[in-house]
Amino acid sequence: MTDISPLQWRKSSYSNGSGGNCVEMASLASGGASVRDSKDPDRAVLMFSARAWGDFVAVVRRRQP
Known about the structure:
It is a single chain. By secondary structure, the chain is of the alpha+beta class. The protein has a domain at 22-63. Helices cover 20% and strands 23% of the residues. Strands 1-2-3-4 form a four-stranded antiparallel beta sheet. A hairpin with an 8-residue loop joins strand 3 and strand 4. The radius of gyration is 13 Å and the shape is flat. 5% of the residues are buried.
């Protein structure tokens, strides 16, 4: 199990102050990323390798209007 306590979490720029659905991400030393639900940060954290995270970001950027 990986200790996530030292991670610097950032909330999605699409988040708003009205309690909407939000995600937070933190960069990993390996170049990958961790993602969690900002409303329930103590639950499961998803961890992605650098390659998987890079592929995900590339797809999202291509689909931006």
